[in-house]
């Protein structure tokens, strides 16, 4: 694609990766993500399925090669397979990849459809392998159901990466077990540092925060971690793990500044584009689309990318109230 049709930001970064939160709703209530009595948005505020596709296509025209659907729980959005099927047809043509981040609750029934639609890789979030602990962190989740879904996903040929949020005093000493289990199951794993997003009611985030530098040191007592040169233009750093024969990623937005190679932007389920996960500047693409139509979208997207900031400044400290960004991860998408 010619450079003029690409989205190049003021720092020369080629923005070719779009993450889309397709719903703020979820069938889990992970304690670090949502309050249990979370108030969800009215339907009129949420992009329709057709609008989601239209915005994705506008981005694809401007050089977006990779789209990840997330949420909330993307697979609980009614009719979402229509969007996945339509966008999936572009994989191998205008898109290199269509991927999904899911809690795994719907995989048993949806994995095959995902594969048939053109999805080849999924990220599945899982923070504990003990059913009681799993229930404790997700509040409403059923580990057995997720495991059945994972098995099905593997059977149909989906490549799986497990996302685990590192939470002090909850799964700190269990991360090695999850890594071993991932190796046995043929999954890669990514450990995520907890981020200060949205009011989650009650708990302070400081108690949950666990720097991944510490996690890595602990894992290195049991495993041989070999740094891999590969970079995803995202916040993950990868190592190969000799003993488990899989890959392990560390996503460290707080202890490591990954912004210099950031190639992504995020669309909320309300159609608002955030150029940086950790900053509030945004562009309301839903209003542009509803009031001025598809043609106006391209200009609005270009102008938004022209404001993509150099980086973010998340902070978790005892002094701050620990909410750097007021929106929830489920709105913006993880
Ligand atoms: N529901 C799907 C899931 O859980 O995979 C997709 C949406 S969820 C918001 C995406 C990812 O964000 C999950 O891996 C979740 O663990 C992570 N996440 C949510 N809140 C977070 C927070 N405050 N800090 C770090 N990661 C968070
Ligand atoms: Fe739902 Fe995912 Fe948030 Fe958990 S992390 S409450 S599964 S959106």
Bound molecules: S-adenosylmethionine, iron/sulfur cluster
User: What's the domain count?
Assistant: 1
CATH topology: TIM Barrel
CATH class: Alpha Beta
If helices are DSSP runs of H or I spanning 4 or more residues, what is the number of helices? 10
The biggest beta sheet reads:
12 strands, mixed
Mean pLDDT: 89
CATH homologous superfamily? Aldolase class I
Helix residue percentage: 25-40%
The unreliable regions are 315-323
How many β-strand runs? 12
Output the strand order for the largest sheet: 7-8-9-6-5-4-3-2-1-10-11-12
Structural class: alpha/beta
Shape: globular
Walk me through this protein's architecture.
With 334 residues, the chain is an alpha/beta fold. It has one domain (14-332): Aldolase class I (TIM Barrel), CATH 3.20.20. 29% of the residues lie in helices and 19% in strands. It has 10 helices and 12 strands. Strands 7-8-9-6-5-4-3-2-1-10-11-12 form a 12-stranded mixed sheet. Helix 1 (49-61) links the parallel strand 1 (17-21) and strand 2 (66-70). Helix 1 crosses helix 9 (294-305), helix 2 (80-88) packs parallel to helix 3 and helix 3 runs parallel beside helix 5 (143-156). The chain is globular. It starts with 16 loop residues before the first strand and ends with a helix. The model is unreliable at 315-323 (pLDDT under 50). The structure holds S-adenosylmethionine and iron/sulfur cluster.
Quick summary of this structure?
This protein has 334 residues and is of the alpha/beta class. Helix content is 29%, strand content 19%.
């Amino acid at each position: 694609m010619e450079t003029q049709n690409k989205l190049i930001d003021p720092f020369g970064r080629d923005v070719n990766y779009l993450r889309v939160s397709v719903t703020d709703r979820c069938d889990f209530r992970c304690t670090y993500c949502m309050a249990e009595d979370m108030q969800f948005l009215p339907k009129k505020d949420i992009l329709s399925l057709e609008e989601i596709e239209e915005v994705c296509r506008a981005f694809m025209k401007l050089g977006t090669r990779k789209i990840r659907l997330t949420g909330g729980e993307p697979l609980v959005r009614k009719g979402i397979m229509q969007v996945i099927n339509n966008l999936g047809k572009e994989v191998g043509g205008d898109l290199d990849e269509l991927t999904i981040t899911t809690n795994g609750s719907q995989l048993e029934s949806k994995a095959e459809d995902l594969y048939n639609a053109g999805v080849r890789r999924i990220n599945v979030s899982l923070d504990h392998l003990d059913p009681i602990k799993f229930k404790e962190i997700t509040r409403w989740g059923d580990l057995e159901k997720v495991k059945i879904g994972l098995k099905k996903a593997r059977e149909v040929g989906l490549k799986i990466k497990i996302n685990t949020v590192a939470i002090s005093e909850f799964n700190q000493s269990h991360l090695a077990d999850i890594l071993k289990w991932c190796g046995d199951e043929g999954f890669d794993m990514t450990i995520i540092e907890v981020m200060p997003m949205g009011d989650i009611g009650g708990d302070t985030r400081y108690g949950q925060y666990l720097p991944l530098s510490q996690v890595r040191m602990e894992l290195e007592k049991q495993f041989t971690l070999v740094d891999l040169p590969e970079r995803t233009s995202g916040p993950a750093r990868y190592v190969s793990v000799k003993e488990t024969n899989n890959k392990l990623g560390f996503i460290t937005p707080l202890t490591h500044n990954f912004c210099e190679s950031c190639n992504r932007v995020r669309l909320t389920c309300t159609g608002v584009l955030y150029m940086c996960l950790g900053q509030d500047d945004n562009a309301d693409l839903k209003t542009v689309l509803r009031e001025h139509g598809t043609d106006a979208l391209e200009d609005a997207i270009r102008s938004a990318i022209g404001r993509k900031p150099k980086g973010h400044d998340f902070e978790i400290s005892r002094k701050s109230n620990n909410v750097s960004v007021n929106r929830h991860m489920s709105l913006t998408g993880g």
